[in-house]
């Protein structure tokens, strides 16, 4: 994780932004470097500040949060996007993850989840609130590959990539995977990139679902 996690906060409600900033300010290793009130301002802030994490409301004027995600990722590929919303509808969750978001939190959730999400995604991991996580597992398992198909997809990975996928499936960050495998974080990033490409998925959550379907998660290396 960076020494100080740099965050851009995007929400059109001033009072909500103030509340989020107050929560984040309780952690001396987190800094809000910019705020945005709509999707276009968010994209510009990502381009200008290259933050580690963007906390993004789904419903904003001019350009909504979901539409802004791919633009943020295009202008600042190192920025992890965490969606913040009052809406927990399945189609929002699925689209956010498909667009490349690394996390999804409900505004009514525990404030401690916010700090946890910022830290986890800054380290290269993914974070879903417990309520959302249950729905994501159901969503992707319901339409995802059967065990045989998952095993076929995993079969195209190298042994080290399979180990990385197994650890990724437990929710570990890049730093945690690096410690477990005794390699550098840069090496883990390369492995994760290869895993996502090899599986044909766009984010770590989708890869984790395949890891579970293939039965890898119970077989992580010691």
From TrEMBL:
Keywords linked to the UniProt accession: DNA-binding, Phosphoprotein, Transcription, Transcription regulation
Positions of the HTH luxR-type domain: 150-215
InterPro entries cross-referenced by the UniProt entry: CheY-like_superfamily, NreC/VraR/RcsB-like_REC, Sig_transdc_resp-reg_C-effctor, Sig_transdc_resp-reg_receiver, Tscrpt_reg_LuxR_C, WalR-like
GO terms (BP aspect): phosphorelay signal transduction system; regulation of DNA-templated transcription
GO MF entry, a single one: DNA binding
Pfam families linked to this entry: GerE (PF00196), Response_reg (PF00072)
PANTHER family for the chain: TRANSCRIPTIONAL REGULATORY PROTEIN NARL-RELATED, TWO-COMPONENT RESPONSE REGULATOR
Domain of life: Bacteria
Species whose genome carries this gene: Marinactinospora thermotolerans DSM 45154
Record PTM 4-aspartylphosphate, positions in chain: 57
Residue span, Response regulatory domain: 6-122
Identification of the protein by name: Two component transcriptional regulator, LuxR family
Lineage of source species: Bacteria, Bacillati, Actinomycetota, Actinomycetes, Streptosporangiales
């Amino acid at each position: 994780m960076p020494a100080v996690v740099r965050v851009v906060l995007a929400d059109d409600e001033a009072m909500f932004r103030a509340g989020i900033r107050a929560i984040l300010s309780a952690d001396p290793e987190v800094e809000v470097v910019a705020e945005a009130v709509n999707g276009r301002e968010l994209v510009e802030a990502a381009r200008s500040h290259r933050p580690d994490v963007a906390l993004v409301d789904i419903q904003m004027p001019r350009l909504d949060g979901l539409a802004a995600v791919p633009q943020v990722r295009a202008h600042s590929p190192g920025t992890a996007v965490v969606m913040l919303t009052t809406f927990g509808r399945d189609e929002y969750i699925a689209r956010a993850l498909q667009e490349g978001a690394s996390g999804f939190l409900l505004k009514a959730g525990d404030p401690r989840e916010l700090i946890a999400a910022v830290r986890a995604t800054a380290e290269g991991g993914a974070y879903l609130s417990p309520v959302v996580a249950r729905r994501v597992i159901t969503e992707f398992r319901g339409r995802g590959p059967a065990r045989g198909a998952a095993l076929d997809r995993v079969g195209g990975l190298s042994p080290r990539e399979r180990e990385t996928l197994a650890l990724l499936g437990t929710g570990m960050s890049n730093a945690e995977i690096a410690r477990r495998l005794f390699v550098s974080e840069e090496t883990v990033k390369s492995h994760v990139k290869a895993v996502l490409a090899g599986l044909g998925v766009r984010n770590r959550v989708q890869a984790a679902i395949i890891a579970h379907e293939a039965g890898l998660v119970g077989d992580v290396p010691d």
